[in-house]
Structure formats: C-alpha cells, structure tokens
C-alpha cells in the first residue's frame, strides 16, 4: 500500500461528483436547497476544509492513519512512526511512543482489531436473535412457520442430524447448535473443536489451515471476549497477534452470517430469481409508504404479511390511500427484495433523501446501519420513525418493541401508526423525476444449482466448473459491502463490474454494493447484452434458456443482503471441494470498494482468512504503521492466501483483480 495514498484519495475526491445516480444527486440538491443536511453535505464540508489557505483536512490525520490512541485515561496519545512520511499539514511536535510506551504498530493493530469486535458483535447478536426465533418457532411459541422444509432438512443433514426426528425437533437442534456456536457452552470445553457450522460448511483444506494458524473460531462471544481482553492496556503488544485475532473474529462473523442465512431461509423461504425495481422513485404518492430498514427480515416479513390482509387493505383505503406500499432500504431492503420482490428505495446514504420526498409515512428501523441523523430529517416532514429494538433507540422516535413471540400484535401496532400518519402528509412533496430501474434478485445457492441442474442433473456444479475451466467464465468477483460518500458513490462498484464483465468475469453482489449495481442497471437481463464479454454472454444466455426465462440471466447476480455473503462462501466452498482445492486457489476475488462499517471490515477480514483477495477503494486507517499495512496487504498472502488490495481508482483496481484471476488460473493450470 503506497504510504500516503490516503491524501491522494482526498485530492481526487474533491474533483468528483457525489454520486452517479441522478435521482440521488437530484435529492441531495433538493434538501440542500431547503437548507437541510444529508450525509453527502456533511462529507463535502470535510473536503471543503481541506481547500482552506492552510492545507488542513477536516478530518484528523492521526485518526485517518490509525495512530490516535484513546484506550486509557493517561491519553489520548497521538504519535508518529519514523518511517512514515510526515504530511506538511501536520505541524505538531512528534512523539513516536504513547505515554505507556505503545508504538504506532501496537496502536494501529489494536485499533484495527477493535473494528472487528464491533462488526462481529453486530452479526453475532443478530444471529443469536434469529436462532432464538427459530427455537421459539420449533417450540410453538411464535406465529412463524418452518417455511422451507427442504432447506431445514438440508441444513440438519449437513450438521449430521436426521434419523427419526420431526421437523420441529430438527429445527430445535439447528437452533441450539447455532446458539452454542454464537455463545459457547457453559462447560467451557464443548467448543474446543470450534464452531459446529464452520466444521460442517467450510472445505476441509481451508479448515485445516485455519487450525494450523490457530484462527479457527470457537464461538463468537468467547472470541469477542478474548479480543477485548487482548486490547486491554497491559495485555497484547504484538501487532501480529492482534491481526490474527482480527482474522478469527472475521471468521466467527462469517459463520454467524452463514447460520443467519440458513435460518432466514428456513423461516422465510429460500429466494429464487424474480424481477422488481430499484431507485428512490419506487415510493408511490397515492399509497401509504412504509420504508423498512435494517437487518431483521423476520420483522419486516411479518409486517408485509399483515399489510396484505383484507383488514389492513381496508384501513389504508379508509385513510384515503390506494393501499400500502413497502419499500426497502439497505440490507432489510435486500432481504425483502430477494424474497418478496419488494422494490429497493436505496441505502443508508439515501435515507434522509427518501424521507425528504415528504411521502414516507413510516420509516421502520430494526438494527444496524441507520444513520443517527434520520430523525432530524423526519422532524422536518411528517415521517414517523419507528424503532423496534432495545439496542438501537433514536431520539423522538416512536418505539414499538419487537419480540418474535408477539410479532402479530407488534405488526398491527406499527401498521396502524403508519396508516394514521398518511393524512398528515406535508405540502412539501418532492419526488425526483427519474424512473426506477428494473432489477432481478434472488440468486440463492439453491436457485443457482436449480438452474445448473437443468443442464446436468447428476452434478449441477459441473456446467459451472466446465465453463470456468474453458474460460467462458474467466473468474468470479463478489462485489460486497457499503456505499461511501468518500467516493463518487455507486461509481466504483459499477465501473469495476463493467470492466470485469467485459473480460468475462461473472459478478455476484450482496448488500449495498448489489443495490449500487441495481441503480447502475446491471441487475437486469438486458445488461448482459450490453456489458458481458462474448463468452460470458453465451453462458448467461444458455443459463437463462435452461431456467426458462426466454432471456439471459443478468450479468450481476444479486445474492441478497450482507448476511448473504455467506451464500457466496457456500457456493465457492462447494466449488473448492468439488475441485479438491482450497478457496485461495479459485479464480475468485472480492471487491468491498466502498466499505464503511465495522461489519464490512470484519467480513472483509473473514474473507481474507478464508483465502480471498479483497479490494477496497477507501483507504483504511492502518497506514500509520508500515508493519501492519504490509501484513494486511502482502504478508497475509503467505499465511491464508487472502490479503487486502487498496486501490482508490476503479479501473486500476479492476486491472489488478484481473491479474489476480489470471494468476489463480495459471495456478490451476486452466485456460488463460
Ligand atoms: O450489512 S452494506 S451499509 S446495510 S454494513 Fe450496512 Fe454496509 Fe449497507 Fe447491511 Ni452491510
């Protein structure tokens, strides 16, 4: 990683547009015209400060480089590493050690690990929540059903449960296994063999390497507690072990995702490809608009189920609306898009903009990724922010606590609040004059294998493997993670996807990255003709034909929310086992170009631990320590096969990813 690329990135970000989505740009300008802020406005202010007479960024250089330490009450300490060039704009006297003696290497590595603690804690807690819902459902305490029995049986059989057990008994077994993988077991020895789901789902070659490196997770909560303990003052001071613990937490995070996906599918159904729309304009002025935002799809699905009832259709009409229109935001958006074809309005960068249309009657938040400013925008309009979870309270919001055992009462309360709010719409209604974009989502592993099975019933993976081997599919890139206002948002993912597609690299997408590809028009079959290279186009046409679509599959396969990154792990693990190689050997790369959250960092490190090269465009706060930067971007390759590639420029990044795919193909001795 070039030493100070972070400053180059700031310079180039001053010259770029804020987004490539015209509806988003339109709404940014509209809210600024009203004198309100959005996340884009605040980001711009940071950049404008950099343009001042004294070349000084609005952000803290020490924080940006990872060398600010606020661990104890002796601090805060801000230090420098002797081998890192000093930017002109820093003119404070430089210390090379904190008061306690911590070097830049220690401070950067410890700060880096703590990102993972929060990310892994978020995904593990969500996993615990849904596992508890499955357990309660199995015991007849919720109104949820075991919707996908095939999936239930497939998961149970992977874990080694079958025999004479009833569906409810299998579900209970799965839930209890999930809970012990997340929380550990009280006897203290049961999880010595590691997470049961990890052992059942990861390729043996990968698992063995993780065990050799001592980074195979035991249980999320135990590994999280270890990380916090290591970060305590007076404990770990070896940067290498901080980074190894960050890999372990990343893996625990990915296993939590995997469990969550499996349980979501059991309770809510496994997605299959279906068409919908993406864009702010999926809101409908004549309807009660309810935006669902967060990461708990059980909650949103319950709301959708009740809204579909005659009772609530009538209530909406009585209130003067034509009906109830759900729109998705962020990962809940991806979840309801993939299972219910609910249109996707946007992500968390756009939440203020969506509210500012003046036609959102309720904005429902569960956990994670809602920005803290949402309620301030809501106060300017009539929107009711409804919070639902004890861990994510928002000032001035209507809090309707959700619990799975009383989900029906909960859903009715939330719907009543939204419908009653319809009549309070302000005069300030402003809808961007841009049509939403067509999109297809729902590419679960089961759906992909279902299509492939139509070509080879006995071994559905064979057509995929054959096409990878002969170069029709040159490689696969997963675009994953968030949208960042530090970049021209959406542009990075769409540029990378288009550059790789023309070189016959298949793109799979999750989370906000997949939504960005949707706004860029890459989730629809027609995009295959425009963007895919000739060989890849042939494959997508054949698969579309086999699926009976009468058109090609889209060039970017939307696999779901960030939780559903596990689907990509699942599919690539099946490929690796079939080929008897490790994940690091596959021509598969990841771009988390616009990563923002701790969760994205944690998943990124989990992917690296599994052996995947992971690109990011946003420079992470680690370059204050050349040692840590080198470990993450180079040395890690010799340990796990995975490593970070930091490249702000999307075309340059695509070229690097292509080179890596080529190198992997050479390693497998397949067509170059
Ligand atoms: O988990 S991509 S901003 S929504 S963290 Fe959040 Fe990032 Fe979006 Fe879902 Ni994922």
Reading off the top of the CATH hierarchy, the class of the largest domain is best stated as Alpha Beta
The side-by-side strand order for the widest beta sheet comes to: 6-5-4-7-8-9
Per CATH, the architecture of the largest domain is 3-Layer(aba) Sandwich
Q: How many helices does DSSP assign?
A: 27
Strand content: 5-15%
Low-confidence stretches: 50-55
What kind of sheet is the major sheet?
A: 6 strands, parallel
- Topology-level CATH name of the largest domain: Rossmann fold
End-to-end distance, in Å? 28 Å
Radius of gyration: 24 Å
Whole-number tally of structural domains:
4
Tell me the structural class. Answer: alpha/beta
